[in-house]
Design a protein that fits this description.
single chain, 99 residues, mainly alpha, Serine Threonine Protein Phosphatase 5, Tetratricopeptide repeat, 6 helices, 0% strand
């Protein structure tokens, strides 16, 4: 479910991403990246309070997470893929995830 949410997030299909991420959180509340990705999707829709709550949950599980560390883990140099990641970084920034 988290992977499906991430795919939707890359495609800027934020409402659908949120549905997948919420299902993933219900299935496993201990996977920090799902919370952080949910935060990014919520932030893109202007749901900042919810986004910050999701970000806090993710950071509570992985306090050392930063956007910079996430950026280093890009798995491709494909421009479409990198464009999707840029949208994710921006959503994470809006959700107050540390740079």
């Amino acid at each position: 479910m988290s992977s499906a949410g991430t795919s939707k997030l890359h495609l800027a299909e934020y409402e659908e991403a949120i549905i997948w991420f919420r299902g993933a959180v219900e299935a496993n509340r201990n996977f920090a990246f799902t919370h952080l990705s949910l935060a990014a999707a919520l932030a893109h829709l202007g749901r900042i309070d919810e986004a910050r709550t999701a970000a806090r949950a993710g950071l509570g599980l992985e306090p050392s997470f930063t956007i910079g560390r996430f950026r280093v883990g890009a798995r491709s140099d494909n421009s479409v893929y990198l464009g999707g990641r840029e949208r994710i970084y921006e959503g994470m920034r809006r959700a107050s995830i540390p740079e």
